[in-house]
Write the structure tokens for this entry.
Amino acid sequence: MSLIYLFIFAFLLIASILEFSDKKVSKQLYVLIVVIMALTAGFGYGLSPDWVAYFNTFNLLADVSWPEFDRFAYFSGMEKGYLGLNKLLVDFGFEFGMLTLLVASTSLILKSSTFYKYGGFPFLVLFIYAMPNFMFEEHVHIRQGLANAIAIYSIRYVIDRNLVKFLICIAVGYQFHESIIVFVLAYWIAPMKFDEKFIGWIVLFSIIGFYTGLNSIIEVIMNFMPIGQDKFESYQSDLYAQGDGVAIGDFVKIISILSIIIYNKYAVHDKLYCYFRNLFVFGVLLYFFLGKGIFGIRLPGFYLVFLGLTVGRLVYVFDGDKFKRNFIYLSFVSYTVLLIFWLQVKQGHKSNFGNYRTIFNKEAVYGLWKWN
């Protein structure tokens, strides 16, 4: 893991500890770390395995006229909103570096502002988000990362019960990644009344379905879906090509659900906690129901990202003894720290996170704008 990432994680960890210890942490520091994260992701060079494909698509649009744009979008298999943003930047003389900077900055602004407004402990929420979501959504899966940012931002309209504005957000996000359509359900799932027993039973049912193969029903369901059938067929082999056994992701999600079941009564009086809890629980259901393939990762991700907000609100409004509150906080912080080391071991050889370079290095084939 490169020094810049270790600095970001250390900054967030220390700020979170100070925040939890009832020491006031200024909003300026929060803005500062978000800016550092945006610049780190935006200026990063060659960090993603997908960057070559995105870079080539960006350059190809220089030779595509606007009348030919729809045809290009159809054959590229990417959303028109994302390609349209590429095309605008190309036409105004910018290079691929401006796209990565703009996407990363926009994504983090939408996410971090929501964390700050609703999280209770915003540094804790951002810390949990940063590992590993920040590493992938702002560096690798940038289209879905931006769509997910819009989904997270739209939660304010779920809370305010403003369906029109919520659907506008979904429509905008759909222009960058079609998978955001799964988040439409959030408007009705968030305010549902769940108790500990109900959460336990429905999660147990989804886990049993996952490990007994009952989740193969998704193949039947996807055949009747009006959208996404081509993507499903492309990823279908990945969906069922995963190994057996309990992965670390399975274990962590199960432990998180158990924590919610055990400590739910201490925060159930808080509406925001209940909303975020419901969304995270639904993400766990999707994860086990859809399996570990591309759908089991991409679609639940729109809901699983609410783990940070759930934990933040749980600790913030916790109506129990101090020992239990401290235990919850230390448990999730410790897990996040361990995840940093796990990412280095499991993903270090698949990415350049351990060899961070910027678009300003001499070997970079693109920058922010064209000089001639």
Notes: The mean pLDDT is 86.
